[in-house]
Amino acid sequence: MKKTLKLMMPILIIALLLFGCAKSNDSNTAAAAATASTSAAKTGSAPAKSVELKFGTGGDQGTYYGFGNVLAQRVTSSTPTKVTAVTSGGSQDNIEQLDMNFYQLGFVQSDVMSYAYEGINLFEDFPVNNFSTVAALYMEQVQIVTLDPNIKTVGDLKGKTVSIGSAGSGVYYNAIDCLKAYGLTENDIKPTYQSFGDSVDSLQDGKIDAAFVVAGAPTVAVSTLASTQDVHLVSIDQEHIDALIEASPYYSPYTIDASVYGTDEDCQTVAVLAVVIARDDVSEDDVYNFVSTIFENKDAIAASHDKGNELDLNFASSITNIPYHPGAAKYFAEKGITVPVK
User: Fold this and answer.
1) Which of 201, 207, 210, 208 is nearest to 228 (CA)?
2) What is the pLDDT of residues 74-131, one digit of tens each?
């Protein structure tokens, strides 16, 4: 027995030594972690986290994509928030993709945004309200484009072949609203349901007589057409603008200057707002980075895209029916502007 104990003693001593070293190392590691944590707490510093947000825009010939890409690149190059602009089907598609979390940011028309929140028109019985306003950036004009100089009013579209936007799109409802103001319905025209690019191609080929294009002017597709053809924009007279706004108060009067497309005269029409929205669960910091970068770099953005010249803090914060994201509200508050939040 004594012999056995004698033989086991060295083994026991080694085991005790190893156990002591392990405890010592664990204590040192814990102490180091505690020190680092305390240091970070004292300084308030933390490693910048890189976040990528998908930004739904529109077709590659529309203003949403062109301007959205400029904004995404500026935010990405200036902050830890990474934004990627992606082409999409426009307002309705962007809201649906946000709802499924495929996109985290999106461009939308102010009227379509209201449809989603209220569960009407495009979103009848299926409301989507898990998003917030980030900022209104510019006006989107209802542009009724034709190559036929004899089409001078909306009333002249009766019996004509007219593109009224993709089926169920925001453009479609804008077209229906304008026709209704003149006592016309979808059945009074020969409708086609085409994107901006396809509409322009059809105008060029003589397949349609006119097309509704709702986007910030100048719109790439229309500018391209105007570079080779004599483009005409159909005006809406004041009486019918008043009727349209009374029925649908999200419209505003707007005049497209003749110099925009080289038309013979200015075009009197209506417009809706182009708004950026974000999912409610996008972090406050990321939305703050997005908004602050845009409005602190207005001149640089304007140098890259004409719509940058329309950036305005008061306009950006003018939405009242859809609450703002806390990250946007934080930036506006720094500028002395209070906006509604959830």
Assistant:
1) 201
2) 999 999 999 999 999 889 999 999 999 999 999 999 999 999 999 998 899 899 999 9
What angle is formed at CA 205 by the lines to CA 199 and CA 210, rounded to 5 degrees?
45
* DSSP letter (8 states) at residue 265: S
Pull the structure tokens for residue 227: 């570079």
CA quadruple 278, 282, 288, 290: dihedral, nearest 10: -60
Peptide bond into 218 cis (omega under 30): yes
Only one residue has tokens 């999409």, namely 88
Distance CA 177, CA 174 (A): 5
CA–CA gap between residue 228 and residue 11 (Å, rounded) = 94
3-state secondary structure string, 165-198? CCCCCHHHHHHHHHHHHCCCCHHHCEEECCCHHH
Give the CA distances from residue 202 to residues 31, 209, 221, in Å, rounded to whole numbers and listed in that order.
72, 9, 12
Quick one: CA dihedral 99, 48, 75, 318, positive or negative?
positive
